[in-house]
Design brief:
This protein is an alpha/beta fold. It is built from eleven helices and twelve strands. A six-stranded parallel β-sheet has the order 6-11-10-9-8-7. A four-stranded antiparallel β-sheet has the order 3-5-1-12, with helices on one face. A two-stranded antiparallel sheet has the order 2-4. The longest helix is centred in the first third of the chain and has 36 residues.
Length: 297
């Protein structure tokens, strides 16, 4: 009975998270449409009858990994629930220049009002997934996992992190509320790594893992002595990271962070670290190039 109780609790937590994510996405779409349409689409209102039906095709104008088609569809449904979206290439798959990604059918005025928001979100998510996939492929022969960060566009974090997962990456904590990461400023304010970790252990649930940011091997040793679950190696050289890997010897997970790019990530992964966080995945990603063209008159 006790096991069943835990299983039920886990399922309830899962469904609550899913509901929360769905609500967040709905709010993102509603806010984006309100920003774009405002008091009404004056161009479409004057040129397209609200009764006129038609179709449009979303086409890839480059090569990339697709991410966000469910969100793309939800934008059209938010404008007009009768608009239908046929997904031709699924999330996580690669599109090549000229490929038709999806077909949209229904009210032409509704399609035109939803177009920009739907494309903006699909293009950004696909860009994130594409870059993530490149990082994942680069470290494929090592044990390292590619993580995202909290360096996301304000308000779009749930979509940014969803795109990272679609691209094959792993999500770091979602926000300040669901994970412990004791950074340099926390350490300074608390009076040191030991004091900061002790403060966390006296207040936190034992289910939460504690991660500590370190900048040299002395701090790595202190974090390990405090029994940190994850030790971040922040802006360390490759040689310093290798020394940390050898010293820790599997007694804690090691995360490399700072100055990571596609040119350096393979060398970083080769040191034996477990995790590599990459801010570039979301803070300065290039959106995929996608167009939406109405077909026929």
């Amino acid at each position: 009975m006790r096991l069943l109780h835990f299983v039920r609790n886990d399922l309830l937590a899962f469904f609550r998270r899913q509901q929360m994510v769905s609500l967040q996405i709905k709010k993102i779409i509603e806010a984006a449409l309100a920003e774009d349409i405002g008091t009404g689409d004056i161009t479409t209102g004057a040129t397209v009858s609200p009764k006129k039906k038609g179709r449009a095709q979303a086409m890839a104008k480059g090569d990339f990994v697709i991410a966000g088609l469910e969100v793309f569809e939800a934008v059209f449904h938010a404008v007009d629930k009768d608009i239908r979206v046929k997904k031709i290439i699924s999330d996580g798959n690669k599109a090549k220049k000229g490929d038709i990604i999806a077909e949209v059918k229904g009210s032409l005025s509704g399609i035109l009002q939803a177009e920009r928001v739907a494309l903006n979100l699909l293009q950004r998510m696909s860009g994130i997934a594409t870059l993530t996939a490149k990082y994942v492929e680069t470290v494929r022969k090592t044990k390292a996992k590619i993580l995202d960060t909290r360096k996301t566009v304000p308000g779009l974090r749930v979509l940014d992190k969803m795109a990272v997962r679609i691209g094959g990456g792993t999500n770091h904590r979602t926000g300040l509320y669901d994970g412990v990461l004791i950074k340099d400023n926390h350490i300074e304010a608390a009076g040191g790594i030991t004091a900061a970790v002790h403060a966390q252990r006296t207040r936190l649930s034992h289910h939460l893992k504690i991660e500590v940011e370190t900048k040299n091997i002395l701090e790595v040793k202190e974090a390990l002595k405090c029994r940190a679950d994850i030790i971040m190696l922040d802006n360390m050289t490759v040689d310093a990271m290798k020394k940390a890997v050898d010293f820790v010897a599997g007694r804690a997970l090691l995360e490399a962070s700072g100055n990571v790019n596609l040119g350096s990530v393979a060398q970083i992964a080769a040191t034996g670290v477990d995790l590599i966080s990459v801010g570039e995945l979301t803070h300065s990603v290039r959106a995929a190039d996608i167009s939406l063209k109405v077909k026929g008159r």
